[in-house]
Amino acid sequence: MRLTWAQPEDLLAHELVQSAAEGKDVAAVRDRWVAAGGDPVPAVSGAGAEPATPPLRALARELLDELDAIPGTPGPATWAEAEALLPPAPALPAAPASYAARVEGAWLGRAAGCLLGKPVEKIPRAGIEEILRATGRWPLDRYFTAVGLPDDVAARWPWNRRSAPTSLEENIAGMPEDDDLNYPILALALLEKHGRAFTTDDVAQLWLDNLPAGRTFTAERVAYRNILDARPVPETATHHNPFREWIGALIRTDLLGWVSPGDVPGAARLAWTDARLSHTGDGIWGATWAAGLAAAAVVADDVEQVLDAASAAVPADSGLAAAVALGRSLGRECDGSEPAVRAGLDRIHEAYGHLHWVHTLNNAAVVAFALTVGRGVFGPSVAIAVTAGWDTDSAAATVGGVVGALAPDAIGERWTAPLDGRIATSLPGGEQRIADLAARTVALAGGAS
């Protein structure tokens, strides 16, 4: 049996990359692995061709331990230490009379953006464009379709296997199950049970009680294993976890912002508490940034105000801040035309194309670029996030949540009607009504500072 995102031989190849990025000297470990017949090149999907032989797997575990033991730069151990790294928070309006509608717009926008990106997750930019041109849908302005797609294009760029049966225009029947929606629903349950004083251990327990292990990926799957191995926080995020700066924590924290209208520092604190279960460094800052975006989006007037406010959730000297700054700078230079969008995305790919397609930094740059260029218009914003490639459903979900909150009445039936007001989930309770989720979210906002 091949278990992706968990086999030691696969983890080691990714850990060599992550440790080197953190400034660790990995040369000796790499040499021993290669000399034993191991592949030092990480697989794109998280899985190699075949499981390693028992001796090679045992060596991979040993080398992972050695890399873990090399001292790194410790991150903040407490929220007070983390908060001291953040810029001052700008003043934002109080929750407006339209707050409830904006929260529902955020849920709808997140779902629609995620759904748009689902069938082309893992497909590179060139493949996405070829699919759209072959089906007469370039530039992207509606959900994908397989109708009219030539066989050779379909063979060259196969749809995401898990998503295609439920996320093409011809087969959408409500929002299908996805981890990008599982996590906000899980966060809702977390706050309903523990309130805003929840701990990282509370998050771990909730995962064990409610989250199927098979519906976790990358850093979350490793953290889940570490929880079951009785490793304490924050070791859950670091032990044999090469995905600790990938996008998993960023996709978990929108709801923590929605229940904190205008309170970017408060949303960032909740996100930091959640994210440290599985992530470190820019993986955590991606989560605080996403929560900051969400907290601002339910009260702000425009995208620029949202992006300005969310900058207070990220250290100014972090890699995450640099990625966001690049996306915003390129977005301001872009007039929204196809050649200008292409040129901006080319620049982002030049800067971050060496990273895995689900890393935090490349996708955060895309989110910032898509929001800036889209200027609050739903369709173009999520379309840019998807046609950028990389983690298409996650990036478009974050963008969709922001734009949906800013202008809930302007999302459009083209995007919302196929959702049918419902979200499938692998969590207890099964399918959820979006209106109910929004009402529960609004009810929790009474605890916001």
From TrEMBL:
Asked if the record carries the keyword Magnesium, the reply is: yes
The parts of the chain that form a coiled coil are none
* UniProt cofactor(s): Mg(2+)
Q: Which domain of life is it from?
A: Bacteria
Mind listing the UniProt keywords for this protein, alphabetically?
Answer: Magnesium, Metal-binding
Instruction: Enumerate the Gene3D superfamilies for this protein.
Output: ADP-ribosylation/Crystallin J1
**Pfam family membership, one:** ADP_ribosyl_GH
CC cofactor note: Binds 2 magnesium ions per subunit.
- Output the Gene Ontology terms for molecular function: metal ion binding
Quote the InterPro entries the UniProt record gives. Answer: Ribosyl_crysJ1, Ribosyl_crysJ1_sf
Which of this chain's residues are annotated to bind Mg(2+)?
Answer: D391, D393, S394
Keyword Metal-binding belongs to the record: yes
Protein name, UniProt field: ADP-ribosylglycohydrolase
**In which organism is this protein found?**
Promicromonospora citrea
| Taxonomic lineage of the native organism | Bacteria, Bacillati, Actinomycetota, Actinomycetes, Micrococcales
